[in-house]
Specification:
The structure is a homodimer.
Chain A (H helix, E strand, L loop, with lengths): L5 H15 L8 H8 L3 H13 L3 E4 L5 E4 L8 H9 L26 H16 L3 H6 L18 H10 L2
Antiparallel strand pairs in A: 1-2
Helix pairs in contact in A: 1-3, 2-3, 4-5
Bound molecules: FE2/S2 (inorganic) cluster (2 copies).
Chain A binds a DNA duplex through α3.
Chain lengths: 166, 166
DNA sequence: TTATATACGATAATAGATGTCGTACTTGAA
DNA sequence: TTCAAGTACGACATCTATTATCGTATATAA
């Protein structure tokens, strides 16, 4: 399953919340937790991680909390995911682990370079999306069918897609 | 972690192997397993799944095995991933589970539509990659596709990305 | 008849994600 | 000075998905 962490989603929601908040006041973990119904402990941990990676700043003590360190327009989803979850490795074969230079099967199977390139393309894709796009846009829920998104494909492929996609 | 299943990688390797094989003879699970060092049981299960979803055809009995049902040029990575792993749900918030119409937090948090749109874009991205691209290239795929996802980025962001990627 | 293969399901083992708990430190305000 | 509200941090438990293994049945070419 190709899925982001739930904490990454929590983080996105929190970032959007902070961005929309009228200036001055800091946002506490409790506030985010109460507002959206997220588990408090996880929300706190998520915000700490955002602080550790420099995306937000913390203010300790009573009346403390967190404030954005950078504009959402300057942060890409690629950077955000990497800071929340670590290096993006969409395929095991291309995971840049320092211990092993490549894939465990790279001796007999020669797809590492292709897999690594695929990974790079995913990173490029994620880097083309700004957090501000996710925070500002109001998008109709209706567009959820696969068939709606095949516009840039050759005709032959459209038929194949239609055949199997629910 | 945003990662594909290992079986999906096994499947890709197997598909490439079958595509490159001189015509006529079928490819057995044992052959793929031996060739690349994959666990046999998993390889067999992977090929069965490919057969169940119609991407390859099976020939039972001695001298049996599998052959491609369609050209790799007609199959997109989006279709392949969906057939190997089920519906793509890159964020939990946008998972189209039949039980719950939306996200468990959708009552107070209003990001479902944005998350669903993000999911749509990921699917569209995967659907823009043909398996033949992954199978044919011994050297990394040309960067021409990258620009599709970079064109709308401000210059400042490109610098940020360069700083932290790979 | 035998060897080689797919077909199928149950289950164990592992890893990762998710959620919980306890405690210490910081600071503004009563 | 005290207290309450907050961050900071780490250890741990739980849940879930992935990954791997095992056993058995069936088909078919030689
Ligand atoms: S799967 Fe990594 S080299 Fe083939
Ligand atoms: S995370 Fe699903 S609605 Fe906010």
């Amino acid at each position: 399953m190709i899925k982001l962490n739930r904490t990454t989603e929590y983080g996105l929601v929190a970032m959007k919340h902070m961005a929309k908040k009228p200036g001055g006041s800091a946002t506490s973990a409790r506030e985010v937790s109460d507002q959206f119904g997220f588990p408090f402990e996880i929300t706190a941990k998520t915000l700490q991680r955002l602080k550790d990676t420099g995306l937000i700043q913390s203010l300790q003590g009573a009346r403390g909390g967190y404030v954005l360190a950078r504009s959402l327009d300057e942060i890409t989803l690629g950077e955000f995911v990497e800071k929340m979850e670590g290096p993006v490795a969409v395929v095991n074969c291309a995971s840049g682990k320092t211990e092993s230079p490549g894939c465990e099967y790279s001796g007999r199977c020669e797809m590492t370079s292709v897999m690594t390139d695929l990974n790079r393309r995913v990173i490029q894709f994620l880097s083309g999306i700004r957090l501000s796009e996710l925070a500002n846009s109001e998008i109709p829920v209706a567009l959820t069918r696969f068939e709606d998104f095949l516009g840039n494909q050759p005709e032959s492929m459209k038929e194949n897609e239609k055949a199997h996609l629910s």
